[in-house]
From TrEMBL:
Keywords: Cytoplasm, Methyltransferase, rRNA processing, S-adenosyl-L-methionine, Transferase. It holds the Pfam family Methyltrans_RNA. Gene3D superfamilies: 3.40.1280.10. Coiled coil: none annotated. Residues 19-53 form the Ribosomal RNA small subunit methyltransferase E PUA-like domain. This is Ribosomal RNA small subunit methyltransferase E. Its EC number is 2.1.1.193. Belongs to the RNA methyltransferase RsmE family. Residues 73-236 form the Ribosomal RNA small subunit methyltransferase E methyltransferase domain. Its main location: cytoplasm. One of its GO terms (molecular function) is methyltransferase activity. It comes from the Bacteria. One of its GO terms (biological process) is methylation.
């Protein structure tokens, strides 16, 4: 499998470019690619360029060979609204959600979220999760990088009128409607997943008041790092490209 790398600026379709230090290090030092080896570069704007690695001393360049725009994005625009989870669970959730085809991830501070983020710490975590999304695109073949939003309290997200597309909120104690039925929604779907301790009754009431539809995923209670991925797979099978 040819190695893929995200290029942080818009890519030309031909010519020769110098690779950023981080990309050059990953290609030559981590993956041990040799001079002349093939690689693929993408800038997140939808296309990718087949290229050839050129090593010149400590610098690395790419000879751009062929531009193409393969279709790898789901026809379903799906945004995961994920309550903050502890440890490396958020890394896992972001990585796998991007692999499954989400268009964006919005971290949410819920009442029962153990992880608390604000200020500079929140920005550092957001930047880290954004890089996780980039790496997931490199691995999965996606050429558009989903945006990871700044963590915000649930109340702020609802107050800003974010729940404008079809919005599902997972509630393990019972759903109010069928999940993923009817024609594909033109405006996409927002999928809300609670924290380890679940949504509070107050939060579920606020989500319903904002127009979100409570749904369940069967009789078993799933962990926060499982529920969102399972629901994404269901929606991709019904409205996406699975």
């Amino acid at each position: 499998m040819i190695s893929r790398f995200h290029f942080p600026q818009p890519l030309p379709h031909e010519g020769e470019i110098e690779l950023p230090e981080a990309v050059a290090h990953h290609a030559a030092r981590v993956l041990r690619l040799a001079d002349g080896d093939p690689l693929v570069l993408f800038d997140g704007l939808g296309g990718e360029v087949e290229a050839r690695l050129l090593l010149r001393g400590r610098a690395a360049f790419a000879e751009l060979c062929r531009y193409r725009e393969p279709r790898r994005e789901s026809p379903l625009r799906l945004v995961l609204v994920q309550a903050l989870a502890t440890g490396d669970k958020m890394d896992w959730i972001v990585q796998k959600a991007v692999e499954l085809g989400v268009a964006g991830v919005q971290p949410i501070q819920a009442e029962r979220s153990v992880l608390r983020l604000a200020g500079e710490r929140a920005e550092k975590r957001r930047a880290h999760w954004q890089q996780v999304a980039v790496s997931a695109c490199e691995q999965s073949g996606r050429n558009r990088v989903p945006e990871v939003g700044m963590p915000m309290p649930l109340a702020n997200w609802l107050a800003a009128g974010q729940a404008q597309a079809l919005c599902y909120v997972l509630a393990p104690d019972g759903g109010e409607a069928a999940f993923g039925t009817g024609p594909r929604p033109a405006a996409g779907v927002q999928l809300m997943i609670g924290p380890e301790g679940g949504w509070t009754a107050h939060e579920l009431a606020a989500c319903r008041a904002a127009g979100c539809i409570a749904v369940g995923l069967g009789p078993r209670v799933l962990r926060t790092e499982t529920a969102g991925l399972a629901a994404i797979a269901v929606l991709q099978a019904r409205w996406g490209d699975f």
